[in-house]
Amino acid sequence: MAQNNISEADHLRVSDAVHAAEAGTSGEIVTIIADHSDRYLDVALWWSAGFAILMLALFAAFPGVYDQLAAAFTGGWLVETGFADGARVALGVAVISFGLARLLMQFVPIRLFFTPGIVKARRVRRRAVRYFKAGAERRTVGRTGILIYLSLKERRAEIVADEAIHSAVSEEEWGKAMADMLEHVSKGRIADGMIAAIKDVGIILAAHFPRAEDDRNELPDRLIEL
After folding, report:
1. What is the edge-to-edge ordering of all strands in the sheet holding 28-34?
2. Band (97; pLDDT cuts 50, 70, 90)
């Protein structure tokens, strides 16, 4: 489990917020906080390959650099070089460039920095949908499960709803919940952000799916950390 600086007291606060939000609705709220949603190793590979190609392009554009390097390694003597020599140097440049870039990309903050925002958004969404399918989809009688998912390293959140909720509530209605959550999270108040989103979602659900007299709690209220 990732250590996200969420105390046991914060866990209890989030669980209480879910319980309170569900008191006025037949909707069932699941909360998940993940340290990250993907390792982005493919992104690191593409950046490393791109850097190697860039260095090769520079080598081709400025071939005189090879002569200078050869002179430096031969004590100032210029030697006659052929195609094979140039090819070997080009291969060495590509391998070294790829290796250095790949080593740099081992650091997660750097890898995330160079990952395009659209890629991070898609993978956070994909992971949220996966968790929703595994833990909430079609697990309630009225298909009223909803997941509030926060991925910390990507600084992104998702709300994924079951069939009944999705067909009744537009994406725009979740905007305030998302904004309220991320406002707190951006200041390091992770639990407060989740609680704010839970309250907003509870209000939306109560308006569309008021609690029935025979309603029962079908999904756990506890905060799940991954």
Report:
1. 156-161, 145-151, 28-34, 223-225
2. confident
